[in-house]
Amino acid sequence: MEAFMSSFSGILGSVNDFVWGPVMLVLLVGTGVFLMIRLKFRPLRNLGYALGQVFSKHSIKKEHNTDAGDISPFQSLMTALAATIGTGNIVGVATAMTLGGPGALFWMWISALFGLATKYGESVLAVYYREKDQRGEMSGGPMFSIKNGFKIKWLGTALAGAFAVFAVIASFGIGNLTQINSIADAVSGTFHVPTWITGIVIAVLVGVVLLGGIQSIGKVSAKVVPVMAVFYAAGCLIIILSNLDALPSGIGQILSSAFAPTSVLGGVAGFTFASALRFGVARGVFSNEAGLGSAPIAAAAAKTDHPCRQGYINMTGTFFDTLIVCTLTGFAIASSGVLGTLDAAGELVTGASLTIAAFGSVMGPAGSYIVTIGLILFAFSTILGWSYYGEKSLEYLTHSVKARYVYRVIFACFIFVGAITTLEIVWDFSDTANGLMAIPNLICLLVLSNVIVKQTDDFDRRFLKPSKAAQKQRIK
User: Which residues form a coiled coil (predicted)?
Assistant: First the structure.
């Protein structure tokens, strides 16, 4: 049995390396470049407008919004961010900068900029092709975009089903087991609380939230996500400001090693341009999920008058996740000077330990508490967001509203299992399923790119151009 598990783990690792290998990363970033060019860089040019929409009354307060949908646009974005802002923002950034050098952060930024177009496009399609389920709630996402948008029906049915299957698997893996495992380990290591107690507490909390469905998830996410982001960002800013004199040097390392044949720390870790590019893009995509097709499921539930309005709002998730939170983590690490340090065993310090070392360089032991609390909040919110993705994907496969209640019970039970079990194989398995979601989604984006462009042109004509004309008139 042990030999079989070892062999299975090796095969799974090889498959995972392929799924998240150069070909997939080129497709993910390439699709973003393609859409950005086709959209005439409007996702980037209209980023300011999009940020304004996020915090408008129409977006935040449901009483100001009578459009079709289940939750406010702001709650939809927060649900998507709940699933997106996770351990990758703390662990992923540190790992990328350790394995790929400081320059990996630069390539995370580049992938995020083009990821704006990808996230925008998939969210537009999700709202445009969404449907009402038997309970009158909105259902959407790549599976519905593929099913309703593809002219070759058998191909659309196959790709939509594949996406939904991978999404259900990923919800239990990357959205549940691996997250609660991170929470339980962090709480045990920092606060010495037994993992089984953590498992029970988180399972009950998640179960209570899931009872209320998407409206409950949206409400909780709208409160938890901004608080956790501000809490962690404040901690990062303290580190950065405390090491302000070293920040220019840190930024210099990031920029120089992004293109140099070997990085500034090459003597220690042997970084190259290729490794900076690879790990930066991979961790960037993994963190903001642009192109994976997960966030559009939440976008489809939003109360909105036009697919592009929610597209603009939801694409800011990539901005907040990578260009803000990941950047703060990267700057905290770069300015603290801990990158490239070795542990007692002579190994490079990486992952959460590297981020904790950066915080500890200024705050001492209190730094580990802040990072641990950040990990708990980030992972908990990820569990909530992914529970909705998995539920809607299962509902698509079974065509049964009852399936959602069965799913919620099983999902909550898996939380306890994940807290008390070592899940090394699950990491690779769930990581693979997460990556495989991208294949049908990217095909959908490329095939239906004309729909995205037409909807964007329509939104420009009906909303953006009149708004800009009114602003010019007021100035005169």
Answer: none
Helix (H) and strand (E) counts in the chain: 26, 2
- pLDDT tens for residues 328-353? 999 999 888 888 777 777 777 777 77
- What is the rounded distance in angstroms from the CA atom of residue 166 to the CA atom of residue 130? 20
Confidence of residue 263 (pLDDT cuts 50, 70, 90): very low
- Closest to 233 (Cα-Cα) out of 321, 108, 115, 109: 321
Q: What is the pLDDT of residue 164?
A: 94
DSSP states of 333-400: HHHHT-TT-B-TTSPBP-HHHHHHHHHHHHHTHHHHHHHHHHHHHHHHHHHHHHHHHHHHHHHHHH--
The dihedral sign for the CA sequence 385, 387, 393, 395? negative
What does the alpha-carbon distance between residue 322 and residue 110 come to, in Å, rounded to a whole number? 10
Which helix (H) or strand (E) element contains residue 464? none
How far apart (Å, rounded) are the C-alpha atoms in residues 24 and 26? Answer: 5
Residue 377's alpha-carbon distances to 7, 84, 179, 310, in angstroms, are: 35, 12, 10, 26
Whole-number Å distance between alpha carbons of 279 and 272: 11
Domains with residue ranges and CATH for the chain: 16-469 (1.20.1740)
Alpha-carbon distances, residue 456 vs 18, 41, 125, 295, 319 (angstroms): 34, 11, 11, 19, 20
* pTM of the entire predicted model: 0.87
Tokens representing 469 are 């004309």
Main-chain dihedrals φ then ψ at residue 348, nearest 5 degrees: -65, 135
Whether 267 has a pLDDT exceeding 50, the answer reads no
